[in-house]
Write a structure and sequence with these properties.
Blueprint lengths: L5 E7 L7 E6 L7 E11 L3 H11 L10 E2 L3 E9 L11 E4 L2 E2 L5 H4 L10 E2 L9 H7 L8 E5 L3 E3 L6 H4 L2 H13 L7 E5 L6 H10 L4 E6 L2 H8 L6 E5 L5 H7 L6 E6 L7 H9 L1 E9 L11 H6 L3 E4 L5 H13 L8 E6 L3 H6 L9 E6 L1
Parallel strand pairs: 11-12, 11-14, 12-13, 14-15, 15-16, 17-18
Antiparallel strand pairs: 1-2, 1-4, 3-5, 3-9, 3-18, 5-6, 6-10, 7-8
């Protein structure tokens, strides 16, 4: 594969400013890296906020130094590999997990890379000031023709998964990782707040594939909720939060016992009361996981949590191993991602694509940039 000396990338120079198309030198992979020819990079509703408001809302979670190439969820083809990379080769179809860690701290050494203090999303943001070193090591995201990533971050994708679907693996995987944390499986009933959104639909898709008996989904838009129910009418029940109590809905469908697991997929603007209702829906010994990141302090009865032997987790992303599991599930036919409605844009239209995401079909919509 011939690799050009230069490439086109979209860079942000000022917070809130439009991304500019620029010609940059094509990066070269290090010994344990791969160079990926990006075919699709996912963009989600939160991207506009990241670019315009993040430094004001979350100053402790830094953006990469500007100017920077953003782009969180890239998929493409391996163009070149470093001399110490043996399990990948040019031509491999891949998804790039953007989660980066130092690789050598005690958390990384025991496989808990997301707990690393240097953890950052390549092409997006970091979780502490220590992420700045991570950005220096891997500065460029997926809104470019080529990008470099460590070989350990690569997920091989099957032939029946297109690049647009692969570019959704990060957000689908956030839900999948949460399902694994609650040990979701046969016999279980799982409540998903925000089931029709970008994260929630992943909980529905992979919850079904993992054998969850019953999925209870909440949201606002009744039409979207009915479309979610249609995915598995005998296993999914839906409820609009405009119609009453989420806890009452959950108890009705569990004979008063409560759900085994509760996944909250509501974003920063979500209602605190809806989250609390989800906690009240848990059975004794039940597990709650927040993946949507409702903003602000939420009042929780910790005494009740202890008395009922319940657990509450925060879950930030997925591991590369989990990404590979998901890709393998698609490859084997256990999961079908054809329900995603992919809308592709060329790199030249990146700004209009980001501003137009609000007009979407809930979590079914899948927006990607194709450099």
């Amino acid at each position: 594969m011939t690799i050009p000396q230069t490439m086109i990338a979209a860079r942000m120079h000022t917070v809130g400013g439009e991304l500019r198309l620029e010609t940059l030198e094509t990066p070269r992979p290090g010994d344990m890296d791969v160079l990926v020819r990006v075919k699709a990079c996912g963009i989600v509703p939160n991207l506009g906020n990241i670019l315009a408001n993040w430094t004001t809302w979350f100053p402790h979670m830094p953006l990469p130094p500007l100017p920077a190439v953003f782009g969180l969820d890239p998929a493409g083809e391996v163009a070149a590999v470093g001399r110490q990379v043996h399990g990948l080769k040019p031509g491999d179809r891949v998804y790039v997990n953007p989660g980066r860690s130092c690789g050598s701290c005690r958390h990384c050494r025991r496989g808990d890379t997301i707990s690393c203090k240097h953890y950052a999303f390549q092409g997006y943001f970091g979780f502490s000031e220590h992420a700045m070193q991570t950005f220096a090591d891997y500065p460029g995201g997926g809104l470019s023709e080529y990008m470099v990533a460590p070989a350990s971050a690569i997920v091989k994708i099957p032939d029946n998964m297109d690049y647009g679907q692969a570019a959704r693996l990060g957000y689908l995987g956030t839900a999948y990782s949460a399902l694994k944390k609650v040990n979701a499986g046969p016999g279980d009933t799982t409540l998903v707040n925000g089931i029709s959104g970008t994260l929630g639909i992943g909980a529905a898709i992979f919850g079904l594939a993992m054998g969850v008996n019953k999925i209870l989904g909440t949201g606002r838009d009744k039409k979207l909720l009915e479309e979610i129910k249609a995915l598995a009418p005998n296993r999914i029940e839906v409820f609009s939060i405009t119609d009453g109590s989420v806890a009452d809905f959950a108890m009705k469908h569990t004979d008063g016992e409560g759900v085994d697991a509760f996944l909250d997929c509501l974003g920063p603007g979500g209602l605190h009361e809806t989250f609390r209702q989800g906690l009240l829906s848990l059975r004794r010994g039940g597990i709650a996981v927040d993946i949507g990141a409702i903003a602000g302090p939420v009042e929780i009865d910790v005494h009740r949590l202890m008395d009922r032997n319940q657990r509450l987790y925060g879950s930030a992303w997925l591991t590369t191993a989990e990404g590979q599991e998901m890709a393998d599930m698609v490859g084997s036919g256990v999961v079908d991602l054809s329900l995603l409605e992919t809308q592709s844009y060329p790199l030249a239209d990146v700004n209009s694509a980001i501003s137009g995401i609000a007009q979407r079909h809930g979590g079914f919509s899948n927006y990607v940039i194709c450099p």
